[in-house]
């Protein structure tokens, strides 16, 4: 056993007390700023700016930075990113508000990785699918080497499930509403993996003998399970339940219209096609 050491601050990495004390330090951050998402030490501040209104994000970032400094923590400006989502046809010159952390400007990006999922300012999933494909293709090379080494087909399938398919399907309920073109690209990864394991079989035959499903089918099942879990979660802290909420109809006149909308309707009934294809709507 090592001798006792006295630390000036912090805790040795890997101790059970470390995560608990860290939570004590920063847990009130959620209470003070509601328009924010936090997972351990990863914090994202969100803001919806009405037209002809000013952004409050620089003030929010300064408050978060001061909050951290008061607790002996300093934000790393190199890891802080700003992403703007703006679909207005005419964008003003003042749309991009500079944000500073410790006096250093925060980089404005068109996409960034949030908890393993790549978000883009055009709200598409092209960047995420591209990143997933790069990792999957590099791991397919390992399957080819194992095949040359004489590994059995069933073992290759198990390695594919553990190390490649698990990466492809990570957080799939978030991005499952991808177009067919991207879905086919992801499906091609599984096709190549099964071609390595069963080079003499067609894709459907390889699926049957390996007891696998189409990736698109697995995403549908995953999304349905996700929505079912939302239904069971009656907590008021679940923001996605608001999308599935039923809005009571309000009759504002004494006459009837052909398209009278006084019946109870979900909130998403008045939104765009993009939101209607969102997982909580599509599988409701």
Automatic annotation (TrEMBL):
It holds the Pfam family RVT_1. InterPro entries: AlkB_hom8_N (IPR015095), DNA/RNA_pol_sf (IPR043502), RT_dom (IPR000477). Keywords: Nucleotidyltransferase, RNA-directed DNA polymerase, Transferase. GO terms for molecular function: 2-oxoglutarate-dependent dioxygenase activity; methyltransferase activity; RNA-directed DNA polymerase activity. This is RNA-directed DNA polymerase from mobile element jockey. It comes from Paramuricea clavata.
